[in-house]
Amino acid sequence: MELLLNEQLKNLRAENDDFTDYFRNTIIPQLFIDKNLILRKFSPAAMKQFNLTPDSYNSSISDITNNLRYPSIIKNIKWVMATSRILEKEIQTTDLCWYQMNIIPYFKGKDNEPNGVIVTFIDITNRIKDLKEQEKLIAEYETLLDTIAHDIKNRLTSMTLSIQMLKESDFDDHEEVRMDLDSLDRGVNKINLIIGELFASRNQKYKYEAVDELLNIEHILEDVKLALIKEIANTNTSINLDIGCSEIMFPRRQLRSIIYNLVSNSIKYRSLDRNLKISIKTIQEDDYFIISVKDNGVGIESVKQKKIFSKFYRIADTIEGSGIGLHLVKTLVTNAGGKIELESEFGEGSEFKIYLKTKCKDVFKPI
């Protein structure tokens, strides 16, 4: 019996040594916190986010200070241990770096109940910069193509008609003029062909990218908030989430563009008399996944509400923008078989409701 106990203790020590070696050598910031919120292990990389020393072992995590702008970490750890579910969140540090934080339940024993959690941090600062650049490039790309469609194509059409009228005139004694008109006609046709190919490649690109994925709406909202993080901070904007339906089948880039444009517009058209509050809510209604974006901004006059989805229409020329954001939102929604509704009171705020023809896949209410 004693030999068996010694063998078990030996194996236990070996497992503990392996566990300790892993934490000591990994370059990923990680913490192992037991079910009593006591810090049992941590990787050296975690010392950058937490004020840790070799004496920090066996300390309560609530007593350890950190440089995370994330006051609900203790609450989230308790939630993971209570539900045995993994929690993922993008969080920021006081030095303005961004991390993907994962809180993973750690199971032990025959009852398979959580014995604690492992918390990991992955640096996503470059990803956030890429998101901002991507949204900027998409907006510039759309503006360029719509400018081509709106301005250049109209002028080319007028030139084509004028050339045809001139060619039908009597230029029998002006062969050089006729030759110049033929050359001009060929040039205009070539430009029209190039523009046609440009729009064809654009449509093909969108067709390729518009692949439905199982998306978590919280992750899309985090992407949008991260892409607008400077604007949100500079305007003291608060965003409240009420997630009744969490997962949706939809193209990732399109859903992000829809929400990005709505939130961005709320920030642009905020009231200077009060802090901006944006409420984002998702619910399931019949066959529609509904996303509501409501704000307490300046609102929209009733005579302008029918025009705001028109291409290049802008409510106010003093506000920066191209006038294609809401047009793009409506196009993406209607092309997906959905619809968009607006309720607005001038001086009070606006609410946009996006109806997407898809079933809610899950219900997950974040902490």
Written account of the structure:
The longest helix has 43 residues, at 125-167. The protein has 367 residues and is an alpha+beta fold. Strand 4 (98-108) and strand 5 (113-123) form a beta hairpin. It contains 9 helices and 12 strands. The strands form 3 sheets. Strands 2-1-5-4-3 form a 5-stranded antiparallel beta sheet, sandwiched between helices. It has a 5-stranded mixed beta sheet with strand order 7-9-10-12-11, with helices on one face. The chain has a two-stranded antiparallel ribbon with strand order 6-8. 21% of the residues are buried. It has helices spanning 2-25, 73-83, 125-167, 175-209, 217-227, 229-234, 252-268, 302-305, 325-335, and strands at 30-34, 39-42, 87-92, 98-108, 113-123, 212-216, 238-243, 247-251, 277-285, 288-295, 339-345, 349-357. Helices cover 44% and strands 23% of the residues. The two termini are 49 Å apart. The protein has 3 domains: 2-123, PAS domain (Beta-Lactamase), CATH 3.30.450; 128-209; 212-357, Heat Shock Protein 90 (2-Layer Sandwich), CATH 3.30.565.10. Residues 362-367 have low confidence and may be disordered.
